[in-house]
């Protein structure tokens, strides 16, 4: 069974920031493309809603904490100082977050 909602779908620019901020608030983010996808696939595929608990299972509590700081535009050094960890550890968490969310580039 396939799902048409992919939390790792490619988002660009302001949509990515909006998506991150929405998820951080505990809400579910749907791309503006979802209605188009739904209308094309509702008769063929099952639609599974994405819940906050599934986002929590996707990222560790530490990764969610770091993602909040990233969404607030803090640098690795600033995050490391707030969390009392090395900037290399922050970089490792950032890399893991990007892998888990299937993000291949960073929007500045």
Residue share in helix? 55-70%
Q: Fill in the CATH topology.
A: Arc Repressor Mutant, subunit A
Task: Identify the quaternary structure here.
Answer: single chain
What is the CA-atom radius of gyration, in angstroms? 15 Å
Order of helices and strands: HHHHHH
Per the principal axes of the C-alpha atoms, what is the gross shape?
globular
Question: What's the level 1 CATH class?
Answer: Mainly Alpha
* Contiguous uncertain segments of 5+ residues: 1-5, 42-49
Number of strands: 0
The tally of domains stands at: 1
Euclidean distance between termini CA atoms: 36 Å
Largest sheet: none
Description:
The chain is mostly helical and 108 residues long. The protein has a single domain (13-100), classed as Arc Repressor Mutant, subunit A, CATH 1.10.10. It has six helices and no strands. The protein has helices at residues 13-24, 34-41, 52-58, 61-71, 76-83, 87-100. The chain starts with 12 loop residues before the first helix and ends in an 8-residue tail after the last helix.
Explain the layout of strands and helices:
Blueprint: H1 13-24, H2 34-41, H3 52-58, H4 61-71, H5 76-83, H6 87-100
Helix pairs in contact: 1-4, 4-6, 5-6
List keywords for this structure.
108 residues, mainly alpha, Arc Repressor Mutant, subunit A, 6 helices, globular, disordered N terminus
């Amino acid at each position: 069974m396939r799902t048409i909602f992919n939390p790792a779908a490619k988002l660009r620019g302001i949509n990515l920031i909006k998506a991150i901020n929405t998820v951080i608030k505990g809400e579910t983010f749907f791309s503006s493309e979802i209605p188009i996808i739904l209308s094309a696939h509702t008769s063929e595929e099952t639609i599974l809603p994405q819940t906050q608990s599934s986002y929590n299972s996707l990222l560790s509590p530490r990764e969610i904490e770091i993602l909040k700081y990233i969404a607030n535009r803090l640098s690795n050094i600033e995050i490391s100082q707030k969390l009392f960890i090395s900037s290399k550890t922050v970089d490792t968490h950032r890399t893991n977050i990007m892998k888990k969310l299937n993000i291949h580039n960073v929007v500045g």
